[in-house]
Amino acid sequence: MYNQRRGRFPARISNAGAPAAVDARYTVQTMPAGAELPTKRAQIVKSEVLYQGKVFSLQRDTVIEPGGVQVERDIIEHPGSVVVLPIFKDGRILLIRQYRHSVGEFLWELVAGRKEPDESPAAAARRELIEETGYTAARLRKLMRIVPTPGFVNEWMWIFAAEGLTEGEAQPEEDEKITPRIFTLKQAEKMIERGTLHDAKSICGILYYAWFLRRTR
Fold first, then answer.
1. What is the largest CA-CA distance in the chain?
2. Domain residues for 59?
3. Per the domain annotation, does 157 fall within a domain?
4. pLDDT tens for residues 68-85?
5. Which stretches within the chain are classed as H helix?
6. How far apart are CA 210 and CA 157, in angstroms?
7. Active site amino acids
8. Residue 133: which residues within 8 A CB-CB, separation 6 or more?
């Protein structure tokens, strides 16, 4: 277990019960709170596109990391996406349920979709809201911008709250089978607490609303 107070892993215990020497590979150097953080970025030596698809492309970069080590990094290039939290006058929110083949599950999620390369995040949010639910919003409020999978995807997600909702006809794409449902905020929080709401972007948006937006009203 990592020792937060000492900033390192504890000495490993031998079979006899006596502490063994600490392996230098498991020693973590913590920085003082006021220390200046490093800002140097990786240097790209070579870059090649391995795959180009409709939604994303796969790129392999040979880079020299800030620490001086040369490595290959496979990066999924993504144009970015938007997430929309529809909020009704009484504080209830709307979630949608759809099948996600990548995980083989039906998931409850917030409205979301890919941003077109020349499209602003706000315009994409309004478009996705109409397409997936039929609702239009009088007001959009940007809640946060997140990177859902920074290890190998360069996608940024913009999360918006949509208020002043007017009902209309949904315009889903042909392959989208979407079931919308209205929940109280307490119900949505219970779904997160019980582990029945698995979608990370939706958890981020709902908890931000519950903790930072709802409390200021």
1. 71
2. 41-77
3. yes
4. 999 999 999 999 999 999
5. 121-133, 185-194, 200-208
6. 19
7. 174
8. 86, 94, 96, 111, 170, 178, 180
